[in-house]
Amino acid sequence: MPEGDSVLVAATRLHAALAGERLVRTDFRVPAFATSDLSGQVVRAVTPRGKHLFLRTDAGLTLHTHLRMDGRWDLRRTGTGLSGRAGDVRVVLETAPWTAVGRRLPVVELLPTAREAEVTAHLGPDVLGPDWDPAEVLRRLRARPDRPIGEALIDQRVMAGPGNVYRSESCFLRGVDPWTPVGDVADLDAMVSLVKRLMEANRSTGAQVTTGDTRPGRSRWVYGRGGEPCRRCGTPVRRGSQGPIAQDRVTYWCPSCQPPPAPLRAAGST
């Protein structure tokens, strides 16, 4: 699942392959930009901001994409052809040595580079970016003390980058039920620091390993393990949806290792 570390890895690979190269062919397979052509422009840089990816050219244009749940960027040597389903392709950027293929991208737009800030103005500090500011993240979290911590951790307006994996794993490692109100989290600073450490540990691979064990099936504590025994206590891991209607996202937790606060236990919320 693409989160901030995955996007950073994709941006790093694309930058290494494309920066300084002239585009010889571009193909935008989205209606709004189907007639756009960037051929002749030189790629200046490819950079991430949270889960957003920006490719800038020397003509002052930026290609903005967002992977969301299923999007990805592939790199192939130019001339080797495109593998996979043709219907998945949204963008093709061809240079002499490399061709970048964006697949299943839900967000594709071209905009003046000078307007990039408009796209990211709502974002909080980037966990893996140069603007990281834990004090500001804590301020934004504490501004809504009644909000469930599991919702707040993946709100990109609070901090940019974390998604369902790091939300679930961080709450488990801190022993916090995801529905615990932000104001009731005993050590909010430690929670934010843990999110940062986990994502930093995966920034070069995007593998989202949180247990320290890279073997298949052993890389995570609770995420993706609904119904399986907790690695600590053996209680079946639970899976549920969290968030406002139409914005709810999947979360995982161990009901024994992450007991809810007393008011939630009484109400049977989790």
3D structure, described in words:
The chain has 270 residues and is α+β, with helices and mostly antiparallel strands. The chain has helices spanning 4-18, 116-120, 134-142, 149-153, 164-173, 188-201, 262-267, and strands at residues 23-28, 43-49, 52-57, 61-66, 72-77, 89-95, 98-103, 107-112, 238-242, 249-253. Strands 1-6-7-5 form a 4-stranded antiparallel β-sheet, with helices on one face. It starts with a helix and ends with a helix. The model has no long low-confidence stretch (mean pLDDT 93).
What is the gist of this entry?
With 270 residues, the chain is α+β, with helices and mostly antiparallel strands. It has helices spanning 4-18, 116-120, 134-142, 149-153, 164-173, 188-201, 262-267, and strands at 23-28, 43-49, 52-57, 61-66, 72-77, 89-95, 98-103, 107-112, 238-242, 249-253.
List the helices and strands and how they pair.
Layout lengths: L3 H15 L4 E6 L14 E7 L2 E6 L3 E6 L5 E6 L11 E7 L2 E6 L3 E6 L3 H5 L13 H9 L6 H5 L10 H10 L14 H14 L36 E5 L6 E5 L8 H6 L3
Residue-averaged pLDDT: 93
Strand order, biggest sheet?
A: 1-6-7-5
Approximate helicity band: 10-25%
Number of helices: 7
> Based on DSSP secondary structure assignment, what is the total number of beta strands?
10
Q: Give the N-to-C terminal Cα separation.
A: 25 Å
Please describe the structure with a list of short key phrases separated by commas or semicolons.
four-stranded antiparallel beta sheet, alpha+beta, about 270 residues, single chain, 10 strands
